[in-house]
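Quick check before the chapter quiz. The format below is the same one you will see on the exam, so make sure you can read both the input and the output lines.
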Amino acid sequence: MHKIIIYFAFILLFIPKTFCQELIELKLPETDKITIKLMFKNGSVSDPKGKEGLTYLTANLITSGGTENRSYNQIQEIVYPMAADFRTSVDKEVTVFTFNVHKDFLEDFYPILKELIMQPSFAEKDYRRVKLNQQNYIDQIIRSSSDEEYSKKALEDFLFRGTRYQHMVQGKSESLKSVSLDDVKSHYENSFTRNNLLIGIAGNFPDDFPERLKDDMQDFPNTIPALPDIKEPNVPDGINVEIVSKNNAFGSAIFMGFPIDITRANDDFAALMIANSYLGEHRKSYGVLYNKLRTTRSMNYGDYSYIEWFDGGGYNSQPPSGFPRSLNYFSIWIRPVQIAKQLKLQYPELSDIKTGHAHFSIRMALREVEKLIKDGLSQKDFEDTREFLRSYIKLYVQEPEERLGYLMDSRFYGRKDFINELYVLLANQTLEDVNNAIKKYWQVDNIYITIITDESEVEELAKSIEGNLTSPVSYSNLVKEGLPLEVLNEDDIIVNYKINIKSVSIINSEDTFSK
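Here is the expected output.
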């Protein structure tokens, strides 16, 4: 515990409190597109207690509302012929505004950009519309649209409970209801200032434009934002499980994790990237987890692991920029596995089963992590994975917008150019470095687990996990006949693999993200 506290204290001292309006230029003469990014160091951790969701609402009102001179609809009519676009992303510690426009329309588009950012109207009708959409996301959409995303947000609520990282960036149901338009206006004045702003521009822009952009951004208030202290994440004692009971859930969506005291600011992040890629690179079929659970056993759609937050995993293939964090955690994403109700309907031979594949898949995933801790990677696996990553990270920044975004994220971590530095760091890693990183940062005894599952599955699944009961894998006859003997023998070990269960609790879906 004391190591984690000391480390995060160092990280928070190392990362600058403000960006002091630095400007990053990425000149790209070969492209006709110009991207402008404004990153404010004031994400959802800046939400006042009882007003969770304020930063998200304020930021989205800026790009989804009107200005002092034009309505939202008028702005859309102007920018549509230009094929220009703009949007907001809000994460735990930063808010990013992104603007894209063809170079031929820069002079026509730039006044719109300045008005949106510096002269938002914060009209009552825009406030009601944007807030209603945000409220609907918290109360309905997150619970109904994707159990996979639901499980990830639920884990963060569990893992960071009692800290400013706990709530979704969209806020909590009751707290968002209390956010007034006056709250929004005050938050804008106090939290979006020249003193916590990092400016970025990429593309084929005029040589004098960056300085002009920087000068114009001086019109933001000169207020020093009161950035909150960020409490270190909770360290789990044993394996703690929260099962969210949902009516008509598709299956059991599982997300599990524990804090790790490492970020991109550390050089040995490269070693852990290699280990993680071998275990479960996002959306890659060669990972151990994917191979064991999906390819071999046909249990679900995919299984991956992460050593930092990966936003939009359901639709992003590479980690997007704009989500730098000073607190981190290792996680495993088990995409929904079938529940007993489904299996019984599909296969008569499984009519007597009590639970689906959730307990078995959790055991299998943790066992694979434990094997890596004990045995490490082989020389060949290490070399193959390292060379894959050195090529693959280039895809992170294949688009100019992402190149700029990663450069800006680099400043958050005290780096100049993370991707280029990472390319060198990966080349210098040894097998010993990677296996030592695994032993240093990974463990299987103290973990938070969230499971979103159908109400028909909840009681028996909770009983099975809490009692460390045998969790037989329920194959149909057809699947079982196609499995080699070594897989069936491995299953016999996994069904009784003991994990360090400390607590299991059941939560009704309606009670999540409420207060």
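If your answer matched, good. The longest helix spans residues 124-144.
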